């Protein structure tokens, strides 16, 4: 037992050490006994996970919104392990776990809301500009008509197909992104963050592809060498965006669709001997 009669798993939860906490999945029937232990203040595992993680653990995840998501993942994971009785179990201060979680994370929720609102404002402007440019490019077809039909003079060119498809994808994804970011500005912060920036990244990429293809189509006919500088310049903003924002997108996707930080790490059973006195 450690300070305040806490076992190794309670200490791991308090300090958000997932590698130690995951050992609980390698225990047999003794796991239920461990999850029902309380410390000297009658705090259960669910009370302890409701406390704010240490700063060094919080800073492993960028942004207050993603930090809040990680905190929620910890709380929900422990909640699945403990007996449902502990959801309303009161410690010596008369507090239930959800009360502690709300109080401890009040400032983080406020920071996450501000982060989401600021991101929503910035990305809404960008999405609107992309949708406007894409729509203008679609109704103002380069080259004009061939004079005998309503088809553009470039309709049989393969590059023109690339332009049309890219422009369409850019319009649809930017419009979807715009509506999603507007939902941030018109709704309450739900302590969650999703993958709205992924749509914006896709719309930016396809817009650049559409512009590059039509630039080559108009000015690069019989001039293959133009394709090289056009491709190089098109890669510049995409590369810049990837280097600056892509790590955040990776964190968003991995935290939503990844295997997570919890789960069995080995098939070997873990034996832990401790006092079972409650």
Automatic annotation (TrEMBL):
GO terms for cellular component: membrane. It comes from the Eukaryota. The keyword Ribonucleoprotein does not apply. The chain crosses the membrane at residues 123-141, 161-186, 198-219, 225-250. The keyword Transmembrane helix applies. It comes from Camellia sinensis (Tea plant). Keywords: Membrane, Transmembrane, Transmembrane helix. This is PGG domain-containing protein. Residues 113-217 form the PGG domain. Pfam families: PGG. InterPro entries: PGG_dom.
């Amino acid at each position: 037992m450690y300070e305040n009669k806490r076992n190794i798993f309670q200490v791991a939860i308090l300090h958000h050490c997932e590698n130690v906490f995951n050992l609980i999945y390698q225990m047999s029937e003794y796991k239920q006994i461990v999850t029902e232990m309380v410390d000297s203040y009658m705090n259960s595992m669910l009370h302890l996970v409701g406390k704010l993680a240490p700063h060094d653990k919080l800073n492993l995840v960028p942004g207050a919104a993603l930090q809040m998501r990680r905190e929620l993942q910890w709380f929900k994971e422990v909640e699945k392990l403990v007996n449902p009785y502990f959801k309303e179990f009161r410690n010596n201060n008369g507090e239930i776990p959800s009360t502690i979680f709300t109080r401890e994370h009040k400032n983080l929720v406020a920071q996450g809301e501000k982060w989401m609102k600021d991101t929503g404002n910035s990305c809404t402007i960008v999405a609107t500009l992309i949708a406007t440019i894409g729509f203008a490019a679609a109704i103002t077809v380069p080259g004009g008509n061939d004079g005998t039909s309503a088809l553009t003079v470039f309709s049989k060119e393969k590059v023109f197909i690339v332009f049309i498809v890219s422009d369409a994808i850019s319009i649809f994804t930017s419009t979807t992104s715009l509506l999603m970011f507007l939902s941030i500005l018109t709704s309450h912060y739900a302590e969650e963050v999703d993958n709205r920036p992924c749509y914006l990244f896709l719309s930016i990429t396809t817009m650049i592809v559409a512009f590059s293809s039509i630039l080559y189509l108009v000015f690069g006919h019989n001039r293959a060498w133009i394709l090289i500088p056009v491709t190089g310049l098109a890669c510049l903003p995409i590369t810049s965006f990837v280097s600056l924002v892509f790590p955040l997108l990776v964190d968003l996707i991995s935290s939503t669709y990844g295997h997570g930080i919890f789960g069995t790490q080995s098939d070997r059973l873990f034996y832990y001997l401790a006092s079972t006195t409650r």
